[in-house]
Protein: Membrane fusion protein (Multidrug efflux system)
Organism: Rhizobium halophytocola
Amino acid sequence: MTMGRHYFIVAGKRATLMSLALLVACSADDAENKPDVQKVEVGYVSLTSQSVPQLEELRGRVVAYATAEVRPQVDGIVRSIDFTEGREVKQGDTLYEIDPRKFQAAYASAEAALKKAEAASQGYQATYDRNKTLARTNAVSAQTLDDAQSNLLQAQASEEAARADLDAAKIDLDNATIKAPIGGMIGTSSVSVGALVTENQTDALVTIRQIRPIHVDLVDTSANMLRVRSEIDAGQLGRERDGPATTTLTLENGKAYDEQGEVSFADMVVSEETGTFTVRATFPNERRILVPGMFVTAKVHFGNLTNAFLVPQRALTRSDDGTATVYLVSDDGKAKKRSVTTNGTSGNDWIVTDGLKNGDKLIVDGFQKLEDGKAVTAVVAEIDENGVVKQSLTSGSTADTKSADQKEAGQ
């Protein structure tokens, strides 16, 4: 019995070994018959360099083109207010009337004083002319002639002083009518009819802001300024035309502003606290949509990056040290990892300025089991303007997948 039991055990082991050997052989045959089972199917797009607009997104605030704080130039009682608050006024429009009676009296008095001085001058002029004629025949002494000339000069000086007093009185009389120094939108009056105002008082009577055209003050970093200058010096950043950089705006409600502006000024002083400087853009603002104090987001077009590549955001990743990398399909059918240099974004794409060349096959889908040197089966894919892949992969990759940024935004 013991020998029989050992026989069956040995026989059973032999059978098991034979079965395992058979399974291994079958697996080997299957592997030979399916040589592509280890390959990863990926979708790719062919890259072509292009001219990409260099747009810098900056935050800013709307500022009036010109601001005038209206203050009285004479003392008096406000007799009338001749404008509607919150409306547009033109340069030279009457805003306030100050009681003019005392200024009219002062003007009349100055006018009379001038006439008196003119009469005195005429009298002294006649005396001088007569003595000058008599002096030729020695009928009067030289002293008499000198006295006549001195009196004439004093009378002429008094006449000029009286004329200046009349001009001053006229200015005060004119200033009793307060007019708009500039055109624009007028604010709220700080005084009412009957109020006493004083010359050059601290508080303004009203403020006028010119908003057609209007300024937008944007904040940019000195580092970005240096980067743009280096791109221009290197010939990477070209302009379609000469002239100032153009600007577009996005309003606080997320809607695009329909007018285009131009950069009109850049402050040459960088803030020591923030490392930023001010870029000023000017907009026509014909419909008066932009209002001083409003926050906006601007895209400034500094020029075009030449020979740049647009890489879908889903196709680019960054390592822990911030290095940007993409996967390409090599000539021998393998995934090749490559480091690239980016320069901002354009829509749903990264702008790549270095590391790629025309004709490169950029992998945009099928990253689940992808690694450097992995054999791949490449299938042509399409990506729409929203970053959605339009190629379904047979290996189970997700089709019509949005970019990672869109997923995070919940779009």
About this structure: The chain is about 30% helix and 35% strand. The two ends are 77 Å apart (CA to CA).
